Amino acid sequence: EGKTLAAVAPTLLGALRGKGALVVTANDYLARRDADSVGLVFRFLGLSVGLVEATMTPASEERREAYACDVTYVSNAEIGFDYLRDQLALDETDLVLPRRSGEIEDLFWWCLVDEADSILIDEARTPLIISETTEAPAAKYEVARDLAEGVLSEGLHYDVDRKGRAVTLNENGYAEAEGALGRPLFDAKDPWAPFLLSALRAKELLEKDRDYLIDEAQQVKLVDAFSGRVLEGRRYADGLQQAVEAKERLPCSNQTRPSAQVTFQSLFRTVPTRLAGMTGTAASDAKELNDVYSLVVVPIPTALPVARKDYDDAVYQTIDAKNRAAAAEVARQHKEGRPVLVGTTSVEASDAFVERLRNDYGLDCEVLSARPDVAKREGAVVAQAGRLGAVTVATNMAGRGTDIKLGGSASDVARLYVEERLRGGDGADLLGVRGREESLLEISSATHDLVEAASKAAVDLLGDDLDEGVADLVALAADGRAVSKAPAVLAARKAVDAVASDVNQVLKEEKQKVEALGGLYVVGTERHESVRVDDQLRGRSGRQGDAGASRFFVSVKDPMFVNFGGERIADMMKTFRVGDDLPVEAKTVTDALSKIQRKVEDFNAEQRTNVLKFDDVQDGQRRALYATRRRLLLADGDEASQTFTRWVADAIIATARSVDRDVKSGDDPDAMLSARLGQFFGKAPALDAGARTALKNSDATALAEAPAVAALAGDILERVG
Description:
- By secondary structure, the chain is α/β, with parallel strands linked by helices.
- 51% of the residues lie in helices and 12% in strands.
- Strands 12, 13, 14, 15, 16, 17 and 18 form a 7-stranded parallel beta sheet that branches. Strands 2-3-1-4-11 form a 5-stranded parallel beta sheet.
């Protein structure tokens, strides 16, 4: 809590050099939120503030201007893809990252990473890839799907390593598949093995509404396992995307072929001495942050003592018993009026839990997940989550930047209500708590009139751009009180102030009641692979000294414990004949589960280390190539021509050295050199005496000035266009 404000001072220090300061967030929502809120401080101090979002056109002037600002807010995905797109640019006008004081290789001068553990560690296993598309053989993917689903079976034909996320065909599987296809799987001219293995991975390792979901346009969208958000623009690689589409009986999209890729580890290591990060949960990964990024983790104590009570895990035999117990606990707390936040690990689990609450207890609740219709209401859901009797079911809270205020926030409700009304909605869901009619907030008729006036002023100002401009207008009205005096902003400001005034007293009384009930109660329905994500969920409660509590309901049949050695706990429960509905609540059991969780984290850390080792091999070459490519793009015609001529001279010298190494007694070295140069360049240059002297001395600068070499370079450039 407080990271956003604490980041202002160091960001200002980084920006004062005039070389640009990047603030990298976990998603577009946080980037926009911070640019709109604390960005006002930088603007007040005379600095320019830019915002880069996924909705902006790639290689656009809008992006270029944002990166050229003194302070730029951008998500980790956008800065990564802009970096790669710049390396593929064919013209200087396609570059968006700025040229700082002639430093070609140093694209980032100063960088602060928000939610650093999520970006620098959790997402480090997956590289960012830009691909070009090719037509996919849809028929092959469909045949492979039919084989995977109807012919091959686990154990008999293939083995699944869920821990290592891999599927391996055995001898029976190869024989069965080749018999069904009537051809070998590894035919060089018509290979089938990649298609079949992708189909098996899609079948066994990827689950709908956990790893991906299908949107209204019938498109497969990937879901971030750590934040629960849709990863816009991301696709599975190596044919896995098409295998998933075939599995879901969707039209087969085009295949992709990687054109450029980079890991977040390599990307952020370009600024090793000017990189900083902030997060609430990095202490457990201090060693990895130091080893990979040379970052020292410094814990900052909370301003007030933590009053949250973290109960021991309630451990059950079966998943169904665990979910029934968790739902019963939520219903009991809701009946008392205490706000409850339920954390799940997947969209599918959220939907199932919401359905259980509705069917078993008649309890309606708010949902926060990756589904597009739900994600766009994130602000409204969070604004109400701390109110009396509120029940919110959320898929992973890591990186959401959410501050759930006990009793709700009058300013947040007012801002979101006015924004919804200006868009043409009624804002009713912002005034009440779902499933609790007595919590409905009332708006006076005078306030309604002010909101109507603000709506008319917004339409007059924005016209056809109403949907896109309303958020900026209301943000300016709510936060930028000393900045703008435009009529539409003033009208919106009056409306926001009036709504806040109407609901403030009621919400104050609710806060007192919620505090008396013990504050926000967090219920976890499963341990995540990363203990930091669990801590993020717990950390939604008990903020800034508030009261609160948390409890995790887990089962020894949960996937993580099944895959990583939870059998001992399960065997112990069987030995003592623990019934399905009887929980085991003991510190020793909680500690045992935590050890398994740390075992999973160690396994994932090893995967990240392996990714880094592989990437380090090509990282130096990649950076050198990208720097040279960028230097050529930014150079004028003469400078580029001189650089290319120098490369030709270097190639001639290297060829001459190979001749010196390979020449034998009786061979004509001049003839060998001429033949090899002709083979390499298409024709051999006629070197004069000066050029031969430069070649003998391995003087590339002098050799590049020789007329024959300059002519050869010009001829090559003309041939390649």
